[in-house]
Amino acid sequence: MHIHRFEKVWLALALVFILGLISSIVYGAVGPGIEMIDAEGGTVDPQNLDETEFADPGVEQVGENEYEVYVVAKQFSFDPGTPANGVIRVPANSEVTFYVTSSDVVHGFEVVGTNLNTMAIPGQVSKMTVEFGDPATYGIVCNEYCGAAHHAMEGRIVVVPESEYDGPGATNATSGNETTTNASVAATPQIVGSATEVTA
User: Fold this and answer.
1) Where is the sequence biased in composition, kind Polar residues (predicted)?
2) CATH of residue 192
């Protein structure tokens, strides 16, 4: 069977296009090092959050300049971080790991002006680790439609200078205030490790 030169050119171009498409899909899936669902965040029973780390959401010091923040998204607030209970406050020059889950429906957890962005899914824990450098204030918004008051779902992270930080682990904090607090947000944070790790 004879194939014309013009047909060979088109077959070669189609093959190159298909190989390029497959290569870009493979790179997008594994190249950036982003871990998908079933990474290390974990799972929780959204009906029994009172029996987990999310029972008392807030900031907890886990090491020198290392903090963990537990956040529960629910219609239509972030706990902590809502106007009812203040903002999330963390010291500058610290590494902060956020653990985010939802108690009701799918929500978004986006720190405005940064690349911190994950979904808060009932039963799943999203984990993000970031380094906050300079003092700053960041807004938190829900970027997944979650109901009639979705537009009002917001919070704040305030990163304060280390000398002004009075939360868990602070030298001027009382011993009774070492488990949870709300914290401040800093300037452009740096992601540590993979950007988002979500576990089903």
Assistant:
1) 171-187
2) 2.60.40.420
